[in-house]
C-alpha cells in the first residue's frame, strides 16, 4: 500500500512506528521480561511520614498503655532520631482518632479518612513496611531510588529507561508537587535520572500558565522558525556525536524533540477546565484550584488517560513532631477525598484494571510521644521500624491487609516488607524482573533494588 500503509500504521500504533526510527522510545527492555499486569503507575507520595497509628494500623492495646513508659523489650535497639535524645521519658500514646471496620474486607481505617474508608475493598493495605533510614532526605531517597545517597536513578527513571514511553508527545515520567502541603523540604533528586541518560529524568509539571518552564516559544518566534532551528541544532548535535560518541548528546536531541511536541500536547493535557461538574464534586472543590493536591490527583488521571507510564505526585506536610492531633487532621482533610476520588474515577473508566495506584510516605511514626504528652496534644518522632502503605488496581489483590506489627505498632511481627521488596514487587507488576534491569556504572551493574529484595507474591492478583 506504499505511503498509505505508513499512515495507517501511525494511526494504529504511533509509538511502535516511532520506535522503529528510535528504539529508545520503547526502552532497553522492549516489552519487558514478562507480561505486565499494569501499564502505568500513579504514586501518591505523602512526604514527611504519615502516622500509621492515626491512619491504618489500629492498636486498641495502646488504650491501656496510654501515658505509660514504652517497655525496653519493645523499644529494643531501634534507632530514634536526634530530636528525642534529650527526652528522659517515652510515654506511649493511643490514637487520637477512632477506628472502624469497613467494607466486606473489614479493614480497619481511621475516622480521619472517611473517603478512603469507602474504597477499602479496593485496597491492598501493607502494614509491615520497614526501611533503613531515619531522617527525611535519606528516607525519601531510599524509597524513591533504592539508596539513601543522592545520585541514583529514581523509580520513574528506571521505568523510562527500561520500558520507554507509550505516548510520543508526553514524557514517560511526570512529577507533580502539590502546593500548600507543608514546609518539609523536598529535593529534585527524588525524581532525578542519576547515572542514566538525562532524558529519563522526571519532568515536573507546575501549576499556572507555564506548566513546564521554558517550553513556550519566546514572543515573535513562529512555530516553523522553531522547527527549522531545531532541525539545524539536531544536525549539529549529530555531527558532534559522530566525533565524540557522548550519549548525552543523543539525550539532548531527544529532549529538544520532546519539548517541541510538548508545546501542543501539554496545554491540552493540563486543561482541567474541560472536566464536567460531577468530576469536581467527586474530587472536591479544591480540584478547581491549580496546584492543590486535589487538582494534581485529577491531573494525574488525565495524564494516565494519555498513557504517561509513571506519574509521581508529592504532597508534603506529614511531619508531625508536635501538635499532631490538629495538624494530621488538616492533612487528612486536604488529601482524603481526592485520594479516594482518583481510585473511584479510574475504576469507573475501566482504567483501574491496568493502573497501579500507590499511597504512602518514607517511614512511620513512633508510638511514644515526642515532647510533652497532654490531654489533647502530643507529637510523634520518625520511625523506620514499621509503617503502612497501600496499593490499589492492576496486579494486586483488592480488599486485603498484609503484614502485622506488634500491639504497640513499633516492630514488625509477621510478613515484613522491606523497601526493596516493595520496589521489586512494583517492577514485577510492570513486567520487569528487578534483578535483570541493570545499568553498568563505574565497573558495577546497578539496579533499583541494589543487592537484595524479593517480590511479595502473597499480595499479587
Characterize the structure shown.
The strands form five sheets. Strands 1, 4, 5, 6, 7, 8, 11, 12 and 15 form a nine-stranded mixed beta sheet that branches. This protein has two domains: 347 residues, Alkaline Phosphatase, subunit A, CATH 3.40.720; 57 residues, no CATH class. The chain is α/β, with parallel strands linked by helices. About 3% of the residues have low confidence. Helix 1 packs across helix 2. Helices cover 33% and strands 15% of the residues.
Question: What attributes does this structure have?
Answer:
461 residues, alpha/beta, Alkaline Phosphatase, subunit A, 2 domains, nine-stranded mixed sheet, 15% strand, globular
Provide a brief overview of the structure.
By secondary structure, the chain is of the alpha/beta class. Helix content is 33%, strand content 15%.
List the helices and strands and how they pair.
Blueprint: H1 3-12, H2 14-21, E1 40-46, H3 61-65, H4 72-75, E2 99-102, E3 107-110, H5 114-117, E4 123-130, H6 136-145, H7 155-163, E5 173-177, E6 203-205, H8 223-244, H9 247-269, H10 277-283, H11 293-305, E7 310-315, H12 324-348, E8 355-360, E9 364-365, E10 382-383, E11 387-393, E12 400-402, E13 404-405, E14 412-414, E15 417-418, H13 419-429, E16 439-441, E17 444-446
Parallel strand pairs: 1-7, 1-8, 4-12, 4-15, 5-6, 5-7
Antiparallel strand pairs: 2-3, 4-11, 8-11, 9-10, 13-14, 16-17
Amino acid at each position: 500500500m506504499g505511503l498509505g500503509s505508513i499512515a495507517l500504521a501511525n494511526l494504529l500504533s504511533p509509538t511502535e512506528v516511532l520506535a522503529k526510527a528510535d528504539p529508545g522510545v520503547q526502552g532497553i527492555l522492549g516489552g519487558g521480561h514478562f507480561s505486565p499486569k499494569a501499564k502505568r503507575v500513579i504514586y501518591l507520595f505523602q512526604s514527611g511520614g504519615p502516622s500509621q497509628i492515626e491512619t491504618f494500623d489500629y492498636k486498641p492495646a495502646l488504650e491501656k498503655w496510654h501515658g505509660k513508659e514504652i517497655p525496653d523489650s519493645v523499644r529494643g535497639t531501634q534507632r530514634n532520631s536526634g530530636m528525642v535524645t534529650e527526652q528522659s521519658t517515652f510515654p506511649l500514646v493511643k490514637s487520637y482518632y477512632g477506628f472502624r471496620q469497613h467494607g466486606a474486607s473489614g479493614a480497619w481505617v481511621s475516622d480521619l479518612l472517611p473517603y478512603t474508608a469507602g474504597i477499602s475493598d479496593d485496597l491492598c493495605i501493607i502494614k509491615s513496611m520497614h526501611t533503613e533510614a531515619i531522617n527525611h532526605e535519606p528516607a525519601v531517597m531510599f524509597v524513591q531510588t533504592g539508596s539513601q545517597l543522592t545520585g541514583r536513578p529514581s523509580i520513574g527513571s528506571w521505568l523510562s529507561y527500561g520500558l520507554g514511553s507509550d505516548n510520543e508527545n508526553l514524557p514517560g515520567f511526570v512529577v507533580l508537587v502539590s502546593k500548600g502541603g507543608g514546609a518539609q523540604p523536598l529535593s529534585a533528586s527524588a525524581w532525578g535520572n542519576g547515572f542514566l541518560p538525562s532524558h529519563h529524568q522526571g519532568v515536573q509539571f507546575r501549576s499556572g500558565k507555564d506548566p513546564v518552564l521554558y517550553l513556550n516559544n519566546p514572543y515573535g518566534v513562529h512555530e516553523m522558525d522553531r522547527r527549522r532551528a531545531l532541525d539545524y541544532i539536531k544536525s549539529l548535535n549529530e555531527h558532534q556525536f559522530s566525533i565524540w560518541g557522548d550519549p548525552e548528546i543523543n539525550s539532548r536531541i531527544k529532549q529538544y524533540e520532546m519539548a517541541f511536541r510538548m508545546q501542543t500536547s501539554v496545554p491540552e493535557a493540563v486543561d482541567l477546565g474541560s472536566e464536567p461538574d460531577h468530576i469536581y464534586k467527586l474530587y472536591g472543590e479544591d480540584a478547581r484550584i491549580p496546584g492543590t493536591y486535589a487538582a494534581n490527583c485529577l491531573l494525574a488521571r488525565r495524564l494516565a488517560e494519555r498513557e504517561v507510564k509513571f506519574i509521581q505526585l508529592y504532597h508534603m506536610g506529614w511531619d508531625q513532631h508536635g501538635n499532631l492531633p490538629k495538624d494530621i487532621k488538616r492533612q487528612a482533610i486536604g488529601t482524603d477525598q481526592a485520594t479516594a476520588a482518583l481510585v473511584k474515577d479510574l475504576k469507573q473508566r475501566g482504567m483501574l484494571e491496568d493502573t497501579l495506584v500507590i499511597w504512602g510516605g518514607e517511614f512511620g511514626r513512633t508510638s511514644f510521644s515526642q515532647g510533652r504528652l497532654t490531654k489533647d496534644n502530643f507529637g510523634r518522632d520518625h520511625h523506620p521500624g514499621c509503617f503502612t502503605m497501600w496499593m490499589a488496581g492492576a496486579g494486586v489483590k483488592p480488599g486485603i491487609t498484609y503484614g502485622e506489627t506488634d500491639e504497640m505498632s513499633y516492630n514488625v511481627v509477621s510478613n515484613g516488607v522491606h523497601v526493596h521488596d516493595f520496589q521489586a514487587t512494583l517492577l514485577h507488576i510492570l513486567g520487569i524482573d528487578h534483578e535483570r534491569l541493570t545499568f553498568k556504572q563505574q565497573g558495577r551493574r546497578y539496579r533499583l533494588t541494589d543487592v537484595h529484595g524479593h517480590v511479595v507474591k502473597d499480595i499479587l492478583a
